[in-house]
Design goal:
3-stranded antiparallel sheet; cytoplasm; 2 helices; about 130 residues; mainly beta
Length: about 130
Amino acid sequence: MKCGAAVDISTSHRCSAPCIAGVEMSLGWNKYKLHIPDQPMTYRACNTLRCIACDNAVVVFDNRSWSSDVDYYFLRTNYPNTKRLQTKMKRKGGSRAYCCQCSSTEATKLTCLDGIPSLQWVCGKHAM
């Protein structure tokens, strides 16, 4: 798709604005910036995030947050082994922990990724 081109929702199934959120927000295709006639605005946290820096899928953990000592080397060594990744997590009701092989974050409220410049995550497309 070219820059400035109109979004054709019949062929494009990417989030209009990829977001992360806590467990109160459902996961799926975020369409809230698209104008779709006769359909309500849909706010969701994207569940098909992909990192363009490491070219890996983003994994999500409900009701978890990251320990403060999680760094690039820990993620690089332990991704995608969820059991090993969970060794650096703690329980946190309402939160979601996210990571790829090179970055991690957590969220409790809806946050669009364009507001987090350190993350190079994009929507990896949603199946209809």
